[in-house]
Write a structure and sequence with these properties.
This protein is mainly beta and about 475 residues long. The protein has 2 helices and 34 strands.
């Protein structure tokens, strides 16, 4: 770790902002499509108080930045996620937790502050903010972005919830998972009904802890990724977190019927790798009539570097992680037990997104932010992929312009999968302003730039929160 990297994620486009703001009637270059009624919202790590000790990008308090679009007009808001940890530190007037790069008390059952800073998903009329290390989801008002409070799903929730739950657009069910790198159960899953109650729970009976991060769903199955990246168990006993990647341990992929308790999860193995984010999964039939689950995702051969960063400065690193993922297709045959994988492209991308109305069924398109040739993780554009063939079209934001996670917004009455808009925040490194850009998803033409009179830091995951027309 270089001296510069100790502060990289507190500076420049990552630097936290101090205030919560509301800016109305934003200046627009071009024209906001009139059928866009909702908000592009992004979750960012934004420490309220100065960190104690080493700061990791994952440590910051959750802050949601959003641009509400209605009748061709834009309004910007940013609000902290008012977690229990945030409130305790607010009352104390100081930082109470150290970050994941610092030692911790291994006897403490909650050694890390649940910041809900990672992901956002829209379910049952509200946004849910979730945390990468599994914790308590928080309900967020989709218009004001104010925190409504911890979401317990009417008191039925009995597992921790990690970032990247999946919403089935046909049933309205939310498939959630939670994991623990400290103690059993190491991986659990649950189904939340469209009405907001937990209806099924599963214990995946994982024999060892892993650092899980995402899942995928089909209409009938959930795909779990038990990959060989872990916190060193001996170091954990000493109150230290050190990432290890077990190159000799195969990657395990579990395919479980959605409403199972975990006992009928079928596990497949492939060579060791790591996957931060999936795109989609679907079911097919082979010639013998066996169900084949097909998943697309961004795969990393080895997430830990083998060389000094100075020898490959154009491949970004997040402290001890090397970020060089590529688009892959995975196939799991439930009848034969066979698994396979193939690379679809050789350009590094991450934070992939698609038209969420096609989640769980056969789809064709994804929109993957391009990883810039920078020492730290940044996106300089996005790639529209045909995920069946790997064919691609690139959109580049321009010199000195950095984007975020893209989100697909369907057009009203759309029938084609790519009939809609691709939108994201873009930051210009030359000034303290940002903008929301809107592209036509079919032609990739730029439709509008919604100017934000302040800086939006580069952050984590984003979503679209539709608003009712009144």
């Amino acid at each position: 770790m270089t001296q510069n990297s100790l502060f990289a994620y507190l500076e420049g486009v990552y630097a936290p902002v101090e205030n919560e703001n509301t800016d109305i009637d934003l200046v627009v270059h071009g024209e906001i499509p009139k059928d866009m009624c909702g908000a592009y919202v992004q979750n960012n790590p934004n420490p309220r108080f100065a960190p104690k000790g080493l700061y990791h990008w994952f440590d910051g308090d959750g802050m949601i930045h959003g641009v509400q679009l209605r009748d061709g007009v834009g309004t910007y808001r940013n609000r902290y996620v008012q977690t229990r940890g945030f409130q305790k530190e607010k009352d104390a007037g100081d930082t109470l937790w150290r970050g994941i790069l610092e030692p911790f008390d291994p006897k403490n059952k909650t050694p890390d502050k649940d910041t809900a800073n990672t992901d956002l998903i829209f379910h049952n009329g509200q946004l849910l903010a979730t945390w990468w290390l599994s914790g308590q989801p928080y309900a967020i008002d989709p218009i004001s972005l104010d925190t409504k409070g911890p979401e317990t799903f009417d008191g039925t929730l009995s597992i921790p919830v990690a970032a990247h739950p999946k919403l089935d657009p046909r049933t309205g069910e939310l498939i959630v998972f939670g994991y623990s790198p400290y103690r059993k159960p190491y991986l659990e899953s649950a189904v939340i009904s469209a009405e907001g109650k937990m209806t099924h729970r599963a214990d995946l009976q994982c024999p060892d802890p892993s650092l899980f991060h995402d899942i995928a769903i089909t209409s009938n199955y959930t795909v779990f990724l038990d990959l060989p990246m872990i916190w060193d168990p001996e170091k954990l006993l000493q109150g230290k977190r050190r990432v290890r990647f077990l190159k000799d341990r195969p990657s395990r992929f579990g395919v479980m019927p959605r409403y199972d308790d975990g006992s009928r999860c079928q596990w497949f193995t492939l060579p060791s790798c790591y996957i931060y984010h999936t795109i989609n999964a679907r079911e097919e039939k082979d010639e013998a009539g066996n169900v084949v689950v097909v998943m697309t995702a961004c795969r990393i051969e080895n997430p830990l570097p083998n060389t000094d960063h100075a020898l490959e400065p154009e491949i970004p690193r997040l402290f001890f992680l090397r970020l060089h993922p590529f688009l892959y297709e995975f196939r799991f045959n439930l009848g034969t037990g066979e698994a396979s994988q193939k690379q679809l492209d050789d350009y590094p991308t991450e934070f992939p997104r698609m038209n969420d109305d096609w989640i769980g069924v056969s789809s064709q398109w994804s929109y993957n932010p391009r990883i810039a040739k920078e020492p730290t993780l940044l996106f300089d554009g996005f790639i529209k992929y045909n995920t069946n063939t790997g064919a691609s079209q690139h959109v580049v934001y321009g010199e000195g312009r950095i984007g975020g996670e893209t989100v697909f917004v369907p057009k009203e009455g759309a029938s084609a999968e790519d009939e809609g808009y691709v939108t994201t925040f873009v930051r210009d490194r030359k000034n303290e302003r940002s903008e929301l850009v809107i592209y036509d998803a079919q032609t990739l033409d730029l439709a509008a730039r919604v100017m934000i009179p302040r800086r939006v830091p580069f952050g984590f995951h984003a979503n679209w929160a539709p608003h009712p027309r009144v």
